Amino acid sequence: MTGYKLSLALVLLAVVPALHACGGKNVPSGSGGKPATVIADSEPDPLKGLKLYLGYCFVCHGQKGDGKGPYAPMLSADPADFTDSTHFKARTDGELYNFISKGGIAHGKSMHMKPFGFQMTPDQIQNTIAYIRVLNRHERISRDKESDFNGEEIYRNSCVMCHGEKGNGDGRISKMLGLEVRPISPESLSQHSGAKLYNIIQDGIPSDTTGLGRFMPAWGSSLSEKEIIDVISYISSF
User: Fold this and answer.
1) Quick one: which of 156, 120, 128 has its CA closest to 61?
2) Is the residue at 126 inside a domain?
3) Which is the most buried residue in 68, 97, 204, 218, by most CB within 10 A?
4) pTM for this one?
5) Domain tally for the chain?
6) Residue 15: pLDDT above 90?
């Protein structure tokens, strides 16, 4: 490879990940280093954001968003408290987007806040921010209709981050944080009745529980009865 081609290749390798991390749809930053404005493909949906929050953020920030997730005691810095409305009122959606996308170190904050721009799409980050705003306002999500997703799609959108593609406990979040997640296997599923599995998904497992289960959040506020049953049907195929 010639020197010119090698230089060009190195430039492309540097630029492409950066564009991906920023979503590829940001309006360039204005003067004064202000965060870029993010353009979503659709109106942000806080219910979709809740599902993503439980998959990506719950383990550190907690079910209530108060920064008291089951993994929080293991961190050297306290996770952000999303219920602190005074603090987050002064933060724009663009600032939150950049923080989630680029991570804590890029903003002089905790190394534990990983850059999710390589894990989440721009719309997913926007939906997550929409749910964080619900937490900021101390509101609750209203679910007035069924989603169009089947069990496999729900699993891949919300559960795969911890449980992994095949339920082996090797999802992105479990790897990123070094979590031990209980594998989903015919043997482990056979230990519970259908009703017990339903209750585990709906109500979660208390974070003060010892063992692997403490990282399991309650999905009852984000998944309908039918959706939970569909997920159980899908994981039973593993």
Assistant:
1) 128
2) yes
3) 97
4) 0.77
5) 2
6) no
